[in-house]
Amino acid sequence: MLPEDVVAALDAVADAQPLLVATDFDGVVAGFDPDPLAVQPTEGVMSTLHGLAALPGVHVAIVSGRDLTTLRLLTGLSGEDAITLIGSHGAESTNPAVQSGMHSRALTGDDLARLDVLEGELRDLVTTRHPQARVERKAAGVAVHTRGLPEDVARPALEEARSLGQSRDGVRVLEGKSVLELSVSPADKGSALVALSRTIGPAARVYLGDDVTDEDVFARFEAPGDVTVKVGPGTTAARHRIADTDAVALLLADLLARRAVAQHG
Ligand SMILES: O=P(O)(O)OC[C@H]1O[C@H](O[C@H]2O[C@H](CO)[C@@H](O)[C@H](O)[C@H]2O)[C@H](O)[C@@H](O)[C@@H]1O
């Protein structure tokens, strides 16, 4: 069952014209796994998102710290689909209007050269001092993963990776769940979705997220018609909260049903 405040909020926006429905990926429409490439969307969720995107006046976006190539792979979506994909925390998108509408500059050759050096340094750090941690290279950043490791192994790995990032110019440290990313991009999910919103002009926006980087969206989606939903525990600026990925599947299915009724009677 969904919390009453969430049901009321969905009911209030179900017939909004247009409506933007955006969601984070990991921890929201997909669960967690120690292997970042082993995760799959929760059963039925992609079909619900396709159903929403097929309804008149509904725009759907998936926004992630994953890079675009990986996001396409894991969602099974291509650039041709009605669903917009936004990757690398906003630095990449299947919709060019997102990048052109953001005030942050695009990645340069210098950024990528810096990222190569950073990746080498992080891999050295992990190999020599934290061999159980794992490194993930992405389009605009490099991440160290500690999911499944004991706290006394994970904590120092994340701390030393954080110190490395903080000691380098032009590098942003992004905190996540059992992951810490060093990014050379200034993009953030909030700015990306504000840019997408400008192209749509939504009367209402729904956003679901579970992690620190989703707070950039929660903070920017402050119009009366915005429905922001934190998934799981933790401090948040979101207006509503649900428990887990099962509740996300329920919420999206509920929104699809309400929207269909609102449009077809
Ligand atoms: O913005 P998101 O879609 O939430 O992506 C955030 C990070 O997700 C991935 O890491 C997380 O999921 C992994 C697979 O379950 C898990 O092993 C890891 O502990 C989680 O933090 C992804 O690998 C990162 O690149 C994303 O930044």
Q: How would you describe this structure to a colleague?
A:
By secondary structure, the protein is α/β, with parallel strands linked by helices. The chain has 2 domains: 4-104 and 187-264, Rossmann fold, CATH 3.40.50.1000; 109-183, Alpha-Beta Plaits (2-Layer Sandwich), CATH 3.30.70. It is 41% helix and 20% strand. It contains 9 helices and 11 strands. It has helices at 4-13, 45-54, 68-75, 96-101, 109-129, 151-166, 189-200, 215-220, 245-264; strands spanning 19-24, 58-63, 84-87, 92-93, 134-137, 141-145, 172-176, 179-183, 204-209, 226-231, 240-242. The strands form 2 sheets. It has a 7-stranded mixed beta sheet with strand order 4-3-2-1-9-10-11, with helices on both faces. It has a 4-stranded antiparallel beta sheet with strand order 5-6-8-7, with helices on one face. Helix 1 (4-13) packs parallel to helix 9 (245-264) and helix 2 (45-54) runs parallel beside helix 9 (245-264). The longest helix has 21 residues, at 109-129. The structure holds the ligand O=P(O)(O)OC[C@H]1O[C@H](O[C@H]2O[C@H](CO)[C@@H](O)[C@H](O)[C@H]2O)[C@H](O)[C@@H](O)[C@@H]1O.
CATH second-level architecture of the largest domain: 3-Layer(aba) Sandwich
Helix-strand string: HEHEHEEHHEEHEEHEHEEH
Q: What is the rounded distance between the termini?
A: 24 Å
Q: Quaternary arrangement of the chains shown?
A: single chain
* Overall pLDDT confidence: 96
- Sheet with the most strands: spatial strand order: 4-3-2-1-9-10-11
Unreliable spans are none
How many helices? The count is 9
Total number of domains: 2
Largest sheet: 7 strands, mixed
> Which ligands are bound?
ligand L263DTV3
Spatial extent as radius of gyration = 18 Å
Estimate what percentage of residues fall within beta strands: 15-25%
Supply the helix-strand structural class. alpha/beta
Kindly identify the CATH topology of the largest domain.
Answer: Rossmann fold
Protein name: Trehalose 6-phosphate phosphatase
Keywords: Hydrolase, Magnesium, Metal-binding
Family: Belongs to the trehalose phosphatase family.
EC number: 3.1.3.12
